Amino acid sequence: MNLHGVLNKGQGRLRIGRGTAMAVAVGLAMMGGIATAVTASADDQKAWVCKYVGTPYVNETLKNGNDGLVWVDTGTTQGSYFGDSQNDSYVLLVGPHETKPDASGCPAPRIVTPPVFTPPTCDSPGSVLATDTNYYTWTHAGPLTAVVYTAKHGDVVLFVSDPYNLVQLTGEQCEEPTEVTPEASATQGTCDAAGQVTLGTNTGYSWSENTGTENDPIYTATAIEGYKLIGTGVFTFNGLSQLLSQSTNSELPCYIAPLAPDTPAISVVKTATLHDTINAANTAGKADAGETITYSFLVTNTGNVTLTGVAVVDPKLDSVPGSAVTCAPTTLLPGDTVTCTAAAYIVKAADVAAGKPIINVATASGQPPTGSRVTATSTVSTPSQEPAVVAGIVADAPVVAGIVADAPVVKGVVKNAPAVKSLAFTGAETLPLGLSGLLALVLGAVLTVASRRQRPKQARE
């Protein structure tokens, strides 16, 4: 049954006109609309708020869980703080639950802004600017040399400052500072090393650490009390890094030439010093039996690699006990030299018997890093004294077919004829001169007798 039918039902019913019924219906509909509007307005009073815990301006932090956001009933304007049963909260967004905002929009925990202190000068005392807020107020106490400022929220102390000296400067403190000019220099990097910065040393200023880079450092000088810098005190240097090596382009800095191949080599120069005894039988500068010869050996590494185990071998000296050649050091870098020595050699009679020079050959050697030992030889000749002539002895005379040739005879004796053990061409042993003559006489007698015996036989025939 509709509203119009309800109003007209039964006896004695009140008759209401159609127009009145329509007016009542419209009024009820409007009342329903008002009810609906009131419900929507109640939803709009809920908001997302940032919940804080701790003491504001002391240890305040966002509440853990759900990013510190909660959806609560509040009649506070969006973007403002309000007090609740837990603690102060901040209205981040008024609206429905489904539109949760990002917690990054919550204000940072509140802190007390420290006072602004202006130090005293020679012209005016110091000052402190401390501004009260709607949450805390400032108080201060203490002498002017140590004023302390305190921020309070009611009886809760939120912040206590360091003591401030507000007394105006006088006397020596107000004297003009001594001017000082900071100094600094640097060398640029080279192919071999990085550059170096040299900072000036002065009691009027100090230096900062490098605030630039290794290649382009920056140092700043700061004046100390009683001094004043001339200039900015900022020094910037460039190009201090060591230059990079260039192995391919000879026109660029730090070119590295290709390494030459290993060419090991050695040389030796042998010298002989005769310790000569000059007398009537010995000519100066010629070795004689019993005299000594000192040998030295100059060995040089003529290659481009290091040689180790450098040594000298000399057969004539090595054959004499204690006369072997010694070298020290035995390792030679390219271009290095060493003089090797040995004990003095004593000339033997056999060395000068033939009157020929005493010839000595030495061999130097060294071991390169790779490959076989390298060697070099050196020969030295020392003249010797000719042997003395002894009467009655054949010396220096060649023998041909058993006959002494070209030998002058003095008083029936062949002079300067050497004793030859083998006959020329035949290989037969030679005989003493006296025995040869005797054999020749015997042979002649035999031939004479044989000839005479043949003649009678021929006559008889």
**Beta-strand percentage range:** 25-35%
**Secondary-structure-derived class:** alpha+beta
Number of helices: 5
Catalogue the unreliable spans: 1-41, 391-431, 456-461
* CATH level 3 topology of the largest domain: Immunoglobulin-like
Query: How far apart lie the N and C ends?
Result: 215 Å
Give the CATH level 1 class of the largest domain: Mainly Beta
* Strand runs, count: 28
Classify the helix fraction into a percent range. Answer: 10-25%
Shape: elongated
Q: Major sheet: size, sense and barrel closure?
A: 5 strands, antiparallel
Based on the coordinates given, report the CATH architecture of the largest domain.
Sandwich
Question: What's the pLDDT, averaged over the residues?
Answer: 78
Radius of gyration from the CA trace?
Answer: 65 Å
The figure for the number of domains is 5
